[in-house]
Protein 1
Amino acid sequence: MLVLLIDENLVSKTRVNVQSTAPFFHTYFYFNFALELYCMISEHIFRMGSIRGAYGTDLNEEIFEQFGNVFAQMVKNNVLVAYDVRKSSPSLTDAFVRGARSAGATVVSIGLAPQCCAVFYAQKHEYNLAYITASHIAGDWNGIKFFHKNGTTYKDKDMALLKKAMKGKMLTTGKGHFTRVDTKKVIREYVDEIAAKVKFHKAKTKVLIDCGNGVNGLVAKQLFEKAGFHTDVIFAEPDGSFPNRHPDPKEDPLNELKKRISGYDIGIAYDADGDRAIFLTKRGIRVSIEQEAGIILSALPKGPVVANVECTNIMNDIAKKQKRELYWVKVGQVYMEEKLLEKKAVLGIESSYHIFLPAMTKFADAVAASLFVAGVVEKTGKSLDDFVGETPVYPTRAKKFLCPDRKKFNVIEKIKQDFRKKYRELNELDGVKILLENGSVLIRASQTEPAIRITVEGKTMKDVDKLEKEFAEVLEKEINRKFK
């Protein structure tokens, strides 16, 4: 039988004695009440491959219970759940599980766990995964990343179906099963399999890892030590208030890591849910994502490489030097996964520091990729500074401008229309990228935040300053303009 899962307290405030009404009115009332609740769900929480919003404003336990129910109906199979360190994650996960069980699903939970371990376990045991996280965003946000049984993220069509179901589908009631799998067991399985791919008896390379109080504090040291590396970790204790630095290492100066790095060969900083990695050399220099790609590719067999449009044009030089085909894609894991599979590429990189390395795992895994980089350093005897010196960096700067979700795509479309009349060389693969003699400018709407980003690349830092000033003024003017 189909019924609607509605908060009893809400119903009690309606002054309608539901129990005494006729069956027809009973169904009619609940159906319309449910539709009213559905309409309260914000449009902008539906992102590419995920749900994301501010806890208590956009998202709450009632909404997560609905998501759990609808997700379980969609996948028609066993559901795996796990969550990151945010303080709202446990209660939201419990709500999601209740909803999934009420759809009759068998739900398996691994609790607080690194995203890499959760996706690994789901893929290995063929579970559909709902990972409760807001990734690198501040701790007052949360959300859900959805993964298919093969480890790939949800595509636009999948999210459209989920959204449609949330907006108009009656929820089911049933009694599914619940199983708890020991998180330590899941982590051990991951560590054993990944460490075996980069194994040294006693590596000379010393590694310092900044986990930023995110979930990778549960796995990083185990993995690197299992592979034979002397490893120390800072900010290893999971803490959803992120007391020591920003949950996105790209947005943080990483002062503590820089202060201690001189005694080590490699520094690594992860984001909150552990799927992004930034490297520091012994001298405290940040390694760009393009330089990371150069290091990894130096140890891979011949094959294509994929980069998203936010990566700099240095990727053209790297691909040419290594005689590899280079393919550009829109920003988003879905597009990266599709192109990697289509071209049978050996590496995929995103400017956000997501790394797809099929030789290690079949999904984006910054932890496995960072172990691979440490292995390259150990095997070659070269330092990260040596590698960085081999790959020049074009001066770049990225800046984020806040813009409401309901408005940001209109802003981008208006800018495209204006630029088509003004510039000859445009790339409209994702947002709009203007190719100029002294550099390039990419303006695109974020898929995960209410923001628009400008990424400027120049031949000199003076070019970067000039281009940023010019195009930031254009963007700010459009953001402040009223749209009908």
Protein 2
Amino acid sequence: MGKRVGIIGVGQTHHAAKRLDASGVELIAEAVTRALDDAQLTIKDIDAVVIGNMDHFENINYVDMWAADGLGSCMKPVFKVTTGGTTGTTVGACGYYHAASGLFDVVMAVGWEKNSESDTQAAISTCANPTLERDSFAGAIGPLATEYSMYMKAYGATEEDAARVAARDRNNACNNPFAHIRQHVTVEEVLASPMLSYPIKFLDMCPRSDGACAVIFAVEEKAKRLCPRPAWVHCSVVRHDYTHFGDLEWTWMPTLERATAEAYRLAGIHDPLKELDVCELYLPASTCGVKWMDSCWFCEKGGAPELIRKGTFEMDGELPINPSGGVISCNPIGATALIRVGEAAWQIMGRAGDRQVEGAKKAMATGFGGCSWSDVFILGADLP
């Protein structure tokens, strides 16, 4: 059994569609500096660094080399991972395991993206089968629209249910100074926004952002000494399939269902809706904030629309989801899922500012990407 590990510091940039004031290396340095400040450490206290971004989207190689100045990783062990949209949580998982293994005491995980200098849509489009899939699955929006259309037919969910999720997360982001989009919207405004691919509208969909995030993990003895209230990692779980888009299950998310089930088992959670205090979930579109709730075991299959309509996941509801505004308000791909882990950690540490959920002691963070890849973290105020 590995060592117990806590998160002791989090830093992220101010995210935007175009950070013209900073290069990729400078964005990394901004997040790293803020994480070190949050943990009251210097780069000399970091034993190893784990990094990730969507370098193949940006057509840039050897990022672990050119990013060294921003990372402060000169003469330190550096490990790089890339797993599509889940890169951020995968970076976080690797940071956690590097510490839990006993190889290093203090590990910094860093994810980033300069989306203003890349072509994400072209990269996703060309990963689809050119004969069978590309016409209908060019990019991320098509598959997300297809799965929600089928969920609507199967369970009676509506466009308005998704619009409620969009309004919730976008309005939550108004309390987050780091969010890319901080704009109050109504359900009616979401429904009236331009259609992208039925039933997904403009305000249902996430942006493309420039930004970076850094999270610092420390083994138990160091975490207790360095941080008054660490966010202890209760578990980290990964599940993924490799599929053609046409082979996916469209009315539920198998990898998320399996990952959350295992995470709950490891963390001793039997009723997640009641035992979790807050969630930071990777929801690239508001439609996912309806359909994927079933696969988080918050309800029976098809039960999510009722929970959405009851306000269960609002800031004043039974289980607040995405107090930060989530992916729909900020999406620097390589950092996106790591931001979910960092925001969940801040909730446990009581450092979430105006988006703090009072008394949060147990949090879940998720990542999604690749060919149906799901990551899940459970964090807690108590030792696992």
Protein 3
Amino acid sequence: MDKIILITGASSGFGKAIAEKFATDGWNCIVTGRRADRLNALVAELQTKYQVKALPLVFDVQDRKAVFAAIENLPAEWKTIDVLVNNAGLALGRDSFENANLDDWDTMIDTNVKGMMYVTKAVLPYMTARKKGHIINMGSVAGKLVYKEGNGYCASKHAVDALSKAMRIDLLPHRIKVTAIHPGAAETEFSMVRFKGDATKAKQVYDGFIPLYASDVADIAFYCASLPENVCINDLTVTSVSQADGIYIHK
């Protein structure tokens, strides 16, 4: 089989855009997520529009048993995964520490941190056996700088940054690349999820400036994965021209 990429959280946003971008170059795609209807629609699009093979895996990255069951039971021809994109993640709530919701904290840590660790751990045997592979972890500017009322989300993305560094060190003997991409404000479902369906609050995040789009981040991920075998981009922080970091945005 040709080159294979596995993308978590592929039913929307960055994940969907990354699947489409790689498919344009003939990559076969394993797409994972919780929403079967969206995954099946994406698979149909990838196969029809780009003439590639696509395989949907429906699971929640928070569910350790489901993660390992799905990946360990991949058909043999799908196990030669060249690139893993740990994209599944979310922010929930924007509250000061004393008012933050404990369930929101649990969900962010379980998804953004533990989910990434589970999926990586499940995929790694296929890469270490071949002494080849590339792991791309989707971080955030929130993993580089803590901002007001970002507590649990910032903590989870700082963990993504630290784990990416740890993976890079530990996997050196296996010649596995590890890239962390840390986007700034990007117009996806992110803010709708963060503000729990409040469309007014979600829209205000992007009012007054041109943010990043999912396709921009997909282009960056594709570039990182397209470099020669001896080259690895370790860490990238990416914002729109109107944003300096997790705090300063010019509107």
